Description:
mainly alpha; 65% helix
Amino acid sequence: ALGDAGDAGAGRAVVRQTLERLGEPDVPGEHHLRLWYVAGDLAERDGDPDAAVRWFRRVAAEDAQLYDVGERLAHLGASG
């Protein structure tokens, strides 16, 4: 919601806190993939394409068909 309201930086902070609270998963669940996707989206909106690529690649490594992650990577000039 913060990103949609134009504050991608604040949205990234909320996602970062949530990811820290969840910890690193042994086996990522769908909720992890969704958070990683949102992290990539907000990073791209916040002008940080390198972070966006890292997050989208992480999603693609688990589920290359999730949402439009392949298209997002292609748009950023990266591959899954």
